[in-house]
Fold this sequence. Notes:
Blueprint: H1 7-20, H2 24-32, H3 40-56, H4 61-64, H5 69-94
Amino acid sequence: MGTFYTDEQIQEAIGALESNSPGIFERMKKMALITDPLNEEQEIEQGAILRVLTIVLPAVSFVAQAEDKNEARARLSIDVGNAVRAAIASAKDVS
């Protein structure tokens, strides 16, 4: 699953996101499936997700301890996005 971080670290980050905002991973998957331009409700949802990512990811232990915190947060964001896409693909395979 991971590109920059281990699967365990990514799961730790997802757990932190879920602790801060229960159900966010499912909301992220739902938003990732949208291909049309966003309506106002979806833009609000996207903004809420972005705020949670902006607040929570820098506080994850391995990001907070990183030498370059901005790079660490950006890389973790990529890995969390990859996890969202992998979960969507896995759900499609099961269907």
